[in-house]
């Protein structure tokens, strides 16, 4: 997944999911 290609809004959601994965 290229975060650079994704919009900021999408990146924020991705980070949210990423934190959930880490949890």
Automatic annotation (TrEMBL):
SUPFAM superfamilies: Cupredoxins. Its cofactor is Cu cation. One of its GO terms (cellular component) is membrane. GO terms for molecular function: copper ion binding; cytochrome-c oxidase activity. It catalyses: 4 Fe(II)-[cytochrome c] + O2 + 8 H(+)(in) = 4 Fe(III)-[cytochrome c] + 2 H2O + 4 H(+)(out). Keywords: Magnesium, Mitochondrion. Residues 1-23 form the Cytochrome oxidase subunit II copper A binding domain. Coiled coil: none annotated. PROSITE patterns: COX2_CUA (PS50857). This is Cytochrome c oxidase subunit II. It comes from Austrarchaea monteithi. The lineage of its organism: Eukaryota, Metazoa, Ecdysozoa, Arthropoda, Chelicerata. The gene is COII.
């Amino acid at each position: 997944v290229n975060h650079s290609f994704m919009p900021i809004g999408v990146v924020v959601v991705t980070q949210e999911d990423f934190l959930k994965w880490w949890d």
